[in-house]
Amino acid sequence: MKSFQETQLAFAKHLRAPELHPAPEGIEDRRMGIYRELIYNNIENFIANVFPVMRLIMGDENWHKLMRDFISTHRCHTPYFVELSEEFLHYLAQERGLQEADPAFLLELAHYEWIELALDTSEAVIPPASPLPANLSASKPRVSPLAVCLNYQYPVHKVSLDYQPSTPEPTQLVVYRNRNDRVRFMAANAMTLRLLYLLQTNTSANLGDQLQLIAAELQHEDPERLSVEAYLLVEELAGLDILSHFE
């Protein structure tokens, strides 16, 4: 007679890959079928809700083939259901990779769709807002802990069943959660991302110093005009809650 552990292992193997591993002996297939459906449907429904665009463009056959492979081959490192989407993202990038039939933007699209859940469930708190300073140049804008700067090779925020780009189109985005707990995105450019990066990493410098550095990096012909444009950008970012407050 098999031990309980052996039976338990056979039970789990069958639920993960029923086409490869038979059910433990002595268990009615109708009962096993209930567990098979529960395991697959719960995982598939949750993943599909997090990656709806990816699910749509892959189609039923390819999507369910993908889900079967994920369930049968990936070993999750978390017991929490809400973290399952991150496990799926890791599986796509580190284990499965990009397949020949996949659109070239697939992995970037998956990451973009996952970011929304990551921000939506984050426990980070946006600091209390502060008034826009009269002297922006001397202020130290702080980036919200719920704002993420992203660089993609494809415009993943535009991908749909009707629009699937075949050639790279470098895209910069800021994805953020505002004070109304809504996750939003903002199309950005290289200067916006550079400014946000400097504000996050060089917290001792004021805004004027940061803009001087950017002007020197760009070898901008009119640093004063650049500053005016940057001040307008800072006001916009503060209004969106991408910048949380000023010091």
Major beta sheet, strand line-up: 2-3-4
**Approximately how much helix is present in the residues?**
40-55%
The tally of strands reads 5
Strand content: 5-15%
Radius of gyration: 24 Å
The shape is elongated
**How far is the N terminus from the C terminus?**
71 Å
Q: Please identify the structural class as seen in this structure.
A: mainly alpha
Q: What series of H and E elements makes up the topology?
A: HHHHHEEEEHHHE
Taking pLDDT < 50 over at least 5 consecutive residues as the criterion, the unreliable ranges are: none
Number of helices, where a helix is a run of at least 4 consecutive DSSP H or I residues: 8
Mean pLDDT: 91
How is the biggest beta sheet arranged? 3 strands, antiparallel
Provide a compact summary of the structure.
This protein is mainly α. Helix content is 51%, strand content 11%.
Describe this structure in words.
A hairpin with a 5-residue loop joins strand 3 and strand 4. This protein has 8 helices and 5 strands, in the order αααααββββαααβ. The strands form 2 sheets. It has a 3-stranded antiparallel β-sheet, with helices on both faces. Strands 1-5 form a two-stranded antiparallel sheet. Helix 4 (84-96) runs antiparallel to helix 5 (106-121). It is 51% helix and 11% strand. The mean pLDDT is 91. The chain has 247 residues and is mainly α.
Task: Please name the defining characteristics of this protein.
single chain, 247 residues, mainly alpha, 3-stranded antiparallel beta sheet, 8 helices, 51% helix, 11% strand
Reconstruct the topology from this structure.
Layout: H1 4-16, H2 29-50, H3 52-73, H4 84-96, H5 106-121, E1 141-143, E2 147-152, E3 171-177, E4 183-188, H6 190-201, H7 207-218, H8 223-239, E5 243-246
Antiparallel strand pairs: 1-5, 2-3, 3-4
Helix pairs in contact: 2-3, 4-5, 6-7, 7-8
